[in-house]
Design a protein that fits this description.
Strand order of the largest sheet: 1-12-11-10-9-8-6-2
Helix content: 40-55%
Mean pLDDT: 95
Oligomer: single chain
Distance between the termini: 71 Å
Number of helices: 28
Shape: globular
Low-confidence stretches: none
Largest sheet: 8 strands, parallel
Bound molecules: glutamine, zinc ion
CATH architecture of the largest domain: Alpha-Beta Barrel
Structural class: alpha/beta
CATH topology of the largest domain: TIM Barrel
Strand content: 5-15%
CATH class of the largest domain: Alpha Beta
Number of strands: 22
Length: about 775
């Protein structure tokens, strides 16, 4: 029974790669330095996995920026505009220009598009294809890394190069021209894969991992055909292929591997444990002698493996297939978890004991293999730790559990339907047509960050800190009044991150010191860890919001992060159904909402930018997701009086196919990103007759460009043709924290001016 790994985190234990890359980009070190850091990280990673005793160790899972971009370079898919960028033999300038753009020496070339890697928070660079796309081996990275590893391990036996498979690669890219389908490129692409495989074989490689996560998706006929075409060809020339699927089950697509012979098939038994029996049945029925690689250690979460559970799966597989035809591995690459739990020294011992990061996960595979060999003691120890934790008082809060159990319709319905509430809110708030507002944050200047850091490091005391934040608030209120916005915000200066802020205040959630996970390129995030029953001990935002309200007669909009987003951007406990955890967080947010209301705040925004990201990969699972996600939002938002206006905000994604669920959230006002799609989204909302108020973003905050009054007015006019005028809000499309003050002031002035003109020109036409 071979133990192997699909990919190891490449940022370095102390984010060495981040620092080395950023120093290189800022001309603070040279390429040799950067390469040296890369080599050290790879060496360390290989050593860790080798020392632990893995039988196959991934190679080419390292990347200076993104493994999809590496693949793009390997296959020579360089968009034309980057071809002429000054480049050396190493191609690094080209590589980083594609990732980050090139704005030097009079050049102004944009970065390639970036998007989320399936349903994770990792972002990849989107390959671009032309109709006449040519493929050829361009980058030698994979071969160099194989050679490097060969030297270190003194043999090729354990080396398993990792590549994104051809169908997933095409799937992840986009057509840059019209009138062709990217899947039609498959016959040009396959020969290059074959060439790569030949080269690897020449180096003495006998295992090649081809990642095809698309097998877990709903595939079109075209994609299925391309898959079969590609793998029939590939498997003909090589018997060394480990075909990996992950992020979801593949039973719907299993017949695609019927006529191809692969050495091993990897399946994700964390996301879909039920597929095991069906897959075994399929293999046996067709007499397919492929080895089955069981993805049983969770590469997307940070909890210790339940050995008892895993051993059952392994034994069952061995019973049906024989020990030689079973392998074990994490379900997916470990780049989605932090590296080493040992570095966390401030986490409570009992909680730490139940956690496992990448390095620990490698050792879990070894443990599992040893248990199979008969070391029962390890199994018992693991059982005890898990049992103890389950019953621990750190985890359990009976009051919270009871409240979740008692949730009923009353908890997720507003007292009255929207149009009754709308009338009361209009009377109470007395806002003009086209009310203007912002999404919450204002520029997080260096000064703001320095203050927060000083407080965190105890260089300034609480009172000094609070006074400083109050100054920022006073200033931002004054500015918003000058700009003449209608609904003001406090600016979010006390928050580093919209999820971290709440997770630090809630019981049952912890933050790590060094639990970094790559988000994109050199950017890393430190997801909070929801380890126990979640509850709210004290007010979390009320002080700041009320202070802001005391500075103005205009309404202040309270600002909270919603339960789905908190969940989505955290590591979540896996010992209870996800909806129970969601409802616990929702109840805590609901208390905060009610406290804000009690303290005189009449408008409260509950941000849910991540609601779309949480969607399962397969459509058939959407219903279950929306059911709990929408309910959670409604629990958090529905406790208030009719007069209190609930806003929500969404961004980062396509909403066209989910707007009926967005309507289900029943927020009084939703503000959202639309400006990049020139308000196409509105069509969906108007076709659907979206019942509540909407603030379609009227300009793109991701760019420093200042929108003109005229273009904003045009967008408002467009919106007013699609939606009832009484329902339209005017706002930027997301928070302003990444922008500079001078951009923000001018943009918002243009926005309020456009709204003023719209009131004169558009609002008179009776609505
Ligand atoms: N209120 C948050 C802000 O303005 C929303 C951030 C987001 O949408 N991601 O920053
Ligand atoms: Zn946003």
């Amino acid at each position: 029974m071979l133990k192997h790994n699909l990919g190891y985190p490449r940022i370095g234990i102390y984010r060495e790669l981040k620092n080395a890359c950023e120093d290189y980009w800022n001309n603070k070190n040279d390429l040799n330095n950067l390469f040296e850091v890369g080599r050290k990280i790879r060496k360390k990673n290989w050593e860790v996995q080798n020392k632990a005793g893995l039988d196959l160790i991934p190679c080419n899972d390292f990347s200076f920026y993104d493994h999809v971009l590496d693949m793009t370079l390997l296959l020579g898919v360089i968009p034309e505009e980057y071809m002429s960028i000054p480049n050396n033999n190493d191609n690094m300038n080209l590589y980083f220009s594609m990732a980050r753009g090139f704005q030097k020496h009079g050049w102004d070339i944009k970065a390639m598009e970036m998007t989320k890697w399936f349903n994770t928070n990792y972002h990849y660079i989107v390959p671009e294809f032309n109709k006449n796309q040519q493929f050829f081996i361009f980058s030698k990275k994979i071969f160099e890394e194989v050679n490097e590893m060969k030297v270190l391990l003194k043999s090729t036996e354990k080396i398993k190069p990792v590549l994104i498979g051809p169908i997933s690669f095409l799937f992840l890219g986009k057509e840059k021209e019209k009138y062709f389908h990217k899947m039609d490129l498959i016959d040009k692409l396959v020969p290059i894969y074959i060439q790569i495989i030949h080269e690897l074989q020449k180096l003495g490689i006998s295992w090649i991992q081809l990642d095809e996560p698309i097998l877990g998706l709903d595939l079109s006929d075209r994609e299925k055909e391309a898959f079969q075409y590609a793998y029939k060809k590939i498997s003909k020339i090589s018997s060394d292929i480990l075909l990996t699927s992950y992020f979801d089950g593949i039973i719907e697509n299993i017949s695609l591997i019927k006529d191809i012979s692969i050495k091993a098939l990897h399946i994700d038994l964390i996301e879909d444990p039920n597929q095991l029996s069906k897959i075994i049945h399929f293999l046996n029925k067709l007499n397919i002698t492929t080895t089955l690689s069981l993805g049983i250690v969770d590469g997307r979460n940070i909890w210790k493996n339940n050995y008892n559970h895993s051993i059952k799966i392994i034994k069952k597989s061995i019973d049906y297939l024989g020990e030689n035809r079973v392998m074990i591995a994490p379900n997916c690459s470990l780049i989605h978890v932090p590296i080493d739990i040992k570095l966390e020294n401030s986490i409570d011992h009992d909680i730490k004991n139940i956690m496992s990061f990448a390095k620990q996960k490698i050792y879990e595979l070894v443990d599992l293999a040893n248990i199979i060999k008969g070391e029962e003691k390890i199994l018992l120890e693991n059982k005890n730790i898990i049992e103890e934790y389950k019953n621990s008082s750190i985890l359990n809060n009976e009051v919270v559990k009871k409240r979740v159990a008692q949730i009923s319709g009353q908890n997720f319905n507003r007292k009255n339907i929207f149009h009754i509430r709308q009338k009361k809110q209009k009377d109470k708030l007395n806002l003009p047509y086209f009310p203007t507002t912002t999404i919450g944050s204002f520029p997080q200047t260096k000064e703001v960050r320095v203050i927060r850091n000083k407080f965190r490091k105890k260089i300034i005391n609480k009172e000094e800190y609070r006074n400083k934040i109050k100054e920022f608030i006073i200033n931002v209120i004054k500015k918003q009044e000058e700009i003449n916005l209608d609904v003001l915000v406090h600016g979010e200066f006390e928050r580093t991150d919209m999820v971290e802020y709440f997770s630090e205040k809630l019981q049952g959630i912890l933050s790590t010191k060094n639990g970094w996970v790559q988000s994109y390129g050199s950017r890393c995030v430190k997801p909070p860890i929801i380890y126990g029953d979640v509850s709210r001990k004290n007010d979390m935002t009320v002080d700041w919001i009320c202070f802001a309200q005391s500075q103005t007669v205009k309404p202040i909009k309270g600002m909270l992060t919603g339960p789905v987003t908190i969940l989505q951007w955290s590591f979540v406990r896996d010992d209870q159904p996800i909806h129970d955890t969601a409802y616990q967080i929702a109840l805590a947010i609901r208390e905060e909402v009610l406290s804000l209301e009690k303290n005189g705040i009449n408008i409260i925004q509950i941000d849910e930018p991540a609601i779309r990201e949480g969607l399962p990969l397969k459509k058939k699972n959407w219903k279950y997701y929306f059911n709990w996600a929408i309910k959670a939002f409604r629990i958090s938002s529905s406790g208030v009086k009719d007069e209190t206006q609930i806003h929500t905000h969404m961004c980062y994604s396509e909403f066209n196919d989910i707007f009926e669920h967005i309507a289900d959230m029943d927020a009084d006002v939703i503000t959202m990103e639309t400006s990049r799609s020139k308000m196409e989204l509105l069509k969906a909302f108007s076709d659907f007759c979206y019942p509540n108020e909407i603030g379609p973003g009227v300009y793109d905050i991701h760019s420093p460009r200042i929108p003109t009054v005229k273009e904003i007015f045009n967008l408002i006019e467009k919106a007013s043709k699609k939606l009832p005028i009484r329902n339209i809000w005017i706002n930027p499309d997301c928070g302003l924290k990444t922008r500079k003050w001078e951009e923000v002031l001018q943009s918002l002035k243009n926005m309020t001016e456009a709204a003023r003109i719209a009131r004169i020109k558009l609002a008179n036409q009776s609505h």
